[in-house]
From TrEMBL:
Encoding gene, per UniProt annotation: TBC1D8
Keyword Repeat: yes
UniProt xrefs under Pfam families: GRAM, RabGAP-TBC
Listed GO MF terms: GTPase activator activity
GO biological process, one term: system process
Keyword terms: GTPase activation, Repeat
Keyword Metal-binding: no
Coiled coil spans: none
Top-level taxonomic group: Eukaryota
Name of the featured protein: TBC1 domain family member 8
Domain Rab-GAP TBC: 470-657
Amino acid sequence: MWLRPEEVLLKNALKLWVTQKSSGYFVLQRRRGHGDGGGRFTGATLEEINQHWEWLEQNLLHTLSVFDNKEDIVSFVKGKVKALIAEETRSKVAEQEEDPEKFREALVKFEARFNFPEAEKLITYYSCCCWKGKVPRQGWLYLSINHLCFYSFFLGKELKLLVPWVDVQKLERTSNVFMTDIIRITTSSKERDFSMFLNIDEAFRIMEQLADVTLRRLLDNEIFELDPGLQDPTQITKRDLEARAQSEFFRAFFRLPGKEKLHEVADCSLWTPFSRCHTAGRMYTSDSYICFASKESGCCNVLIPLREVVSIEKMEDTSLLPNPIIISIRSKMAFQFIELKDRESLVENLLLRLKQVNTSNPVHYNCLEKKETNSLVFHSTCVYSDCESRDLGMVASQSEDKSEGEKESNHLLNAEALRSVFHQSGAEGSDFRMSREQIKERLWNDHFAEYGRTVCMFRTEKIRKLVAMGIPESLRGKLWLLFSDAVTDLASHPGYYGNLVEASMGKCCMATEEIERDLHRSLPEHPAFQNETGIAALRRVLTAYAHRNPKIGYCQSMNILTSVLLLYAKEEEAFWLLVAVCERMLPDYFNHRVIGAQVDQSVFEELIKERLPELAEHMKDLSTLASISLSWFLTLFLSIMPLESAVNVVDCFFYDGIKAIFQLGLAILEANAAELCNSKDDGHALMILSRFLDHVQNEESPLPPIGNHHAFFSDDQEPCPVTEIADLIRDSYEKFGDHSVEQIEHMRYKHRIRVLQNHEDTTKQNVLRVVIPDVSILPEDLEELYDLFKREHLMSCYWQGMRPVILRHDPSRPYAEQYRIDSQQFTNLYKLVSPWTCGEHTQIVAERTFRLLDENMDHLIEFKGFASCLDVMYNGEMNEKINLLYRLHIPPALTENEKDSQSPLKNPLLSTSRPLVFGKTNGDTVDYQKQLKQMLKDLAKEKDTKTEKAMPKMSQREFIQFCKTLYSMFHEDPEENSLYQAIATVTTLLLQIGEVGQRSSSLGSGSDEFTEDVQSEASASDQDTVFTDTVKTTHKETPSLPVTEGNWIISFEQILASLLTEQSLVNFFEKPLELKPKLENAKLNQYCLKTNGMSDQSLAEHMKLNTQ
């Protein structure tokens, strides 16, 4: 449809063309006598033409009014349409998988325009507009593994933008004054809007994925360890990102293990016997599962673990049953799928994976055929009745030759749910409650007969309603196992839990100490946990899980959840339920920083704004509600609601996942909205919600009411009205149950960025709080310095891979140690921000500074050491600066094998046998002998009175390097001339002092004798001049020093005293230095140091890059 814009003469246009549509800037015409029947216009269908016309109206019409003249409008429209043609061509090429020549062209332009290292891989690119104020700039958006880049050359002006993904704080689709659909990227300093994409849905999806992947890889070490797809970013492609997004949705929708990789997605129809028809939907196949989801949300879902599958067969293709396959499972059920397009390859792949699953996990299948089909026992290898636990349980899975001791330890595991062991008799009305239980059991039994009773059951709206009513006590544990698919893990790992218990019990670590501390806080009001049997089972499950997953170990709230699981499931079953909750159903909740819980709190805030706007308007700071509701998410309401009511919430959670908790939380806030709007403060709001939750009851529960933690809130208050849990759950589904898994996952993407960046801000503020009191650098400058330090670390992660010494960001470490840099990174920063630049010698000084700061010799330094060092350079007193310089030229900063350790002083112009007489500009000479004699006496006195530990003395080789550094520092200084004269004077004086010390060690005489020797030598040739005022000579031919050392030594005090004798040197070291200009320059040039062979011109371009 899109054609290259050309100028057209309008003469006689009305005779030849008929106007179909028109607007202020565009006209849609058809050739007179053509197209009346809705045929093709210029090679395009009428539908496509109308679609593109709508695109013009929505994206361009509102924009053109911002331009000042017609020429700018024409130029902008031409550029935009040309870009759309290129974009459309690229899309077609990608669809047909032809030679990606267009992508190669874009890659060449990307590399030329942004000059990144080769490791910065381009993922994809889009034509779009970037808004600069009220003006859109047409250009190209390049998305690479670490950066978002935009390039535009419009109306003679070039614009480059570069945004590291790791700096993105918010990524959203929104609108502005001119456009209804834009992508907004927010960093700490700017907001940037992009619009007029040909396919904005795809562009946003890829951006969302890239931001998520990069932030997880660089900022969230715990997730990085778990996700192999993030390990090597250079292997990421656009297709990989789309596949990853689809896999994540698949795992979230069916709540499958994180290792499950999605292989095929196929449209099909499934025979649903309960409705006597085929239901349209999609089949998803992965490593270990075949899943089906109907197109109509909630109509029918099926989850089939491959280990349950007996056979997969192709049936005869007919007009009524096109391309059918039959999947038979062990519980004597079969699933018929039809309308599968690529049936042959699909069945072949499924059979291959079925064979792999059966080889790796042989099925223990012996007595299940004995079951009666109308019993409440579930027909699956995975769930078994109590009488069969001897055959299929953990003990039976062990080989018969186990030692007696091992058998005894295995038998210690609870073979029953604690609820059945510690049975509680109900209170008044227990007969009514038991009859209600029996009615529920019959309803479930009828449902199983029609929809299936294994993990492969048809999951429909009907089962959701049954769950919302509350699962019968007798079936609760087994249905939790089915809904979470923990039953498959249980059957796939016979003996695993028993072995874990044996391996973990008796071992002491931080997790076991925390577990012991919390054991007696877990449902202390329940008789099962007032007894050692329940406590011991809880200890074993929690300790075994900490041993299985040391990354999580043990987190508070796991004890409450596990204790409830033990009430309704056998001990081994409770363990696998805990695995399902921690690793699949609540991802990232139970780790060091509870990132997952915080992300969902942030999502919950957004849902409150969307669904309860009046409450959100009243409570300006929704973080209060989020913090109150944190325990709702972490304990699934078990810690803040009576147990007999909370277990109904857990029922919904195991069936619907986190969606059930979101909607119940909204229902609770809505029920209390009026009171919350009148609440005086956060404490009052907390009291309102706590009292409400404390009075949520379950009249149908056969259990007696169990006391809870919040009873004290109602002691001196008016009686709180009672709420029935079934009514509350029903309201939550009716009013707030319309959010899909896909919507929640998209919100999680968005808010994970925000949560991770909040953690980064917290880390930054804590580091600065520690460093600020110890330095004189202004807080705002220190903050910018921290940003440079962190960016330097991240850039090495971008392009240099993970060298062994460069440890990636580890949020589990103390704040000050989370970001550290190595020698090369430090050298780069030193060149950017240090005031002590020494020309070619700068690299060597930087390396010495790094060795000095690396006190623990782990080849990494923290921000505090870096900031303290710069603080001395910029704000230290002269003696502190000289002290730092002195330490840079003695071990460990100066090493024996250093490449620059040889003397740079080639010509023997300076000899310590010559007198201390120097040529002056006015022709006068100055004798330093009296001054030297007095200085030595003063230093001797100072040495006697000084109590602190003296620094090691400097050898002649080290002194030579010290002098070289000083000479290098003075280069290009405005006072260069006088500084060279002064340092020549001081150098000669210190060489004399060192030689005097050398003689003293051999003769054992006092300092007075040596000064007399120096004086007598000086009188022998008082006409010699060592240095003149000729700057060229002092700069180009730096004086040569003897390399034979003997016992030649000099102390810090002697060097400091000598330097203090020269006013020009004092002025140099005490002149005020500004850090801010260096920081501003560093922000512009930090990236440039990482690119190879960058010209001055491209350097200047990069300096403009981030300022526009």
